[in-house]
Amino acid sequence: MFRKILLPVEHTAYDAGIAGYVRDLARDNRAAVLVLHVADGFAARHLAQFELRESEEVREDREYVERIAAELAAAGVDAECMLAAGDPAREIAAAAEREGCDLIAMATHGHRFFKDLLFGSVANEVRHVSRVPVLLVLGAPAGTPPR
To answer: Which residues pair with 138 in a beta bridge?
Structure first.
């Protein structure tokens, strides 16, 4: 059913739950997984423009996505990783199309109205801008199964 699943991660405790869910989905479908983190700090957004050296944040993000991809590979899933910079929702949607993904699987935090108004929702925006189907799983911190 799925050939390539995009797994956007945000470098939080919520990632373990969605990564486990995607691991099982990928194994069941014999699908590959592309782990993506969109760094959106100042240094990440302006790295090339100002010819900046890779920041500590960007280095840690790179190591993080590499570790998740390695864990997926150790579980028998064909996995690779990518680091992007910029607006998370737009970068996620663009990567899914560019990389030939047929599903984007993301965790949501389960914010309710006021928090979404204050903080926005990357998952909700991805849902609106992506041409690739989006699977939203109510996230749970590490050690708690997603709902």
So the answer is: 108
